[in-house]
Amino acid sequence: MTKPRKAKRSKDFDLRAALVDYLFAHGFQRWQIRHELTHDTGGFGGRCDVALLLNTGQISGLEIKSGSDTDERLKAQMRAGSLAFDSMAVLADIVHCEKIRHEWAYYCHEKKCLISQYPSIRGGEREAITAPPSVTLYRRNSRDTSLAYMLRLLWRNEVRAIAAQHGVNKATREDCLRWISENLALKDARPLIYEQLRNRPLSAYEATFWRKYDARATVPPDTSAPLPPAAA
């Protein structure tokens, strides 16, 4: 008897592409979506999967868990993200729904898009997955955002540029980070960080992603609902 084939697991690119489809359908511009931001504070493993530059001027982090990934580091990543970002989001393949529980958007590899998963149980079985015309992305505000941590999203030249705008010329990145943290409030420094991330040239990873994304022969879904406010 022929063994049934195992279902293919989604890859990181699959979720990123579906996420970008969703964000474009909600009015995001390409410059508002930054991939693989390096972060030299523990918890991310050196980087954050996606950073979103919101129209509100806030900066939101997002962690991706594909079907080929595990959720082992997610708690640590979300904790670290709550220090560096104004809000954190998670986009996980539906295969992780038992461990990564929420009632908003997951990724379905069969449908190649974000879907809503309602975790209510009826008759001992999970209620059927539905794919409404619009879904909402899980995002939660952070109460722990720290300027010192947010600044570490920036490269040396970007940190020096912010310090120079205030007449401060420090030689090292650490000196600049220390001066900004001690002399500026988060609300005053955030727009400067936002602008540096907006104007940052594409990394090699980002250039490769966009090239691959643009080569797809798919059309983004028609999703008219706006992004929801982050959960408190």
Summing up helix and strand content along with how strands pair, one would put the structural category as alpha+beta
User: What is the CATH top level name of the domain at 12-145 and 203-214?
Assistant: Alpha Beta
Q: Reading side by side through the largest sheet, how are the strands ordered?
A: 1-2-3-4-9
Q: What's the rounded overall pLDDT mean?
A: 80
The largest sheet is: 5 strands, mixed
Tally of DSSP β-strands: 9
> Helix count?
7
What is the rounded distance between the termini? 53 Å
Oligomer: single chain
Integer-rounded radius of gyration: 19 Å
Report the helical percentage. Answer: 25-40%
Per CATH, which architecture of the domain at 12-145 and 203-214? Answer: 3-Layer(aba) Sandwich
Give unreliable regions as ranges.
119-133, 221-232
Shape: elongated
Strand content: 15-25%
Return the CATH topology of the domain at 12-145 and 203-214. Trna Endonuclease, Chain: A, domain 1
H-E order: HEEEHEEEEEEHHHHH
